[in-house]
Design brief:
Alpha-Beta Plaits, 2 domains, 9 helices
Length: 296
């Protein structure tokens, strides 16, 4: 899951990331609660490894490992044991391989890494994802909620836009589920590169166009209106974007929103209504919510 900045006025080349902060946490009683708290604190991804949780933060989020321990300790409580490591950027992919196995995400969608074999069953759609500097492998509840919702409502030949595409998992799934054209964007350069590679691995380049940009700076040849928009992004990032998203939506179009916590439900409903949209359906998975919205 990656973020999309609504206020960028110029397309900027982001500095090359050299490392990530890898934080290991133990001594908690509720893994879901810890992961939700880490998400609020800015984590770009987490892994629940039964006896401990691993969280990843961007290198620029904290100046030092002491700063991380101090900030997280204050937010999570003194009983939580926190260990911090610097994870070199080039080690991200090899580190993730230990935990990434083929996994069924919805009734039809299965996600697998290229290094794992999987025998496809009838009517299944297999999405191949090799994560590098992005977090979007289908293991997080928010990604699963979007995939399950999209499987139910996507119509054949529809035009789809994926905002904050990350690894490209949602865009690729949309193409394989029957979308006519898919347009995916991300303002993070590493995500943009990784998404392009994953689209190529899935042989979906004919259906999917990817851009390193923001919603207010779409390429000239991209469509002005689409049938379905996907946004798996935090509420604080989605909120100022919603009116612009509505402008790019066809009359009968829909938006699938996720990356939103259950405790934010009332705020999200207000946010959606103020943007001239209405909630058609909502779904929950653990601490996370997903909304299907349309024009009022």
């Amino acid at each position: 899951m990656t973020t999309q900045s609504p206020n960028t006025k110029k397309k900027q080349r982001l500095p090359k990331r050299t490392f990530w902060w890898q934080v290991e946490l133990s001594g908690y009683s509720n893994a879901e609660a810890i992961q939700s708290a880490l998400f609020k604190l800015g984590s770009r991804g987490t892994q629940d490894l039964s006896d401990h949780v691993i969280a990843y933060f961007e290198s620029e989020d904290f100046k030092s490992s002491k700063g991380i321990v101090g900030s997280l300790g204050k937010a999570l409580g003194p009983r939580i044991k926190i260990t911090v490591h610097k994870l070199p950027a080039q080690d991200w992919e090899s580190g993730w391989k230990k935990y990434f196995k083929p996994r069924r995400i919805s009734k039809r969608v299965v996600v697998r890494p290229s290094w794992e074999k999987y025998k496809k069953k009838k009517k299944e759609i297999v999405v191949v994802i090799d994560p590098k500097m992005s977090f979007g492998t289908g293991t997080h509840e928010t990604t699963q909620l979007v995939l399950k919702s999209m499987e139910k409502i996507l119509r054949k030949k529809e035009v789809v836009m994926d905002i904050g595409t990350g690894t490209g998992i949602l865009a690729i799934a949309a193409a394989k589920l029957g979308a006519g054209k898919v347009f995916a964007l991300d303002n993070d350069e590493d995500s943009f590169i990784n998404a392009k590679e994953n689209v190529a691995v899935n042989k979906a380049a004919g259906k999917i166009k990817i851009a390193h940009t923001t919603l207010d700076r779409l390429p000239k040849r991209w469509p002005k209106k689409v049938d379905l928009m996907l946004a798996n992004i935090q509420r604080s990032i989605i909120e100022p974007m919603l009116k612009t998203m509505k402008e790019h939506l066809r009359a009968q179009g829909r938006i699938i929103l996720s990356g939103l916590l259950v405790e934010e439900d009332a705020q999200v409903f207000t946010m959606i209504e103020r943007s001239g949209l209405i909630v058609k359906k909502s779904f929950r998975d653990g601490e996370w919510m997903c909304y299907i919205v349309k024009k009022a």
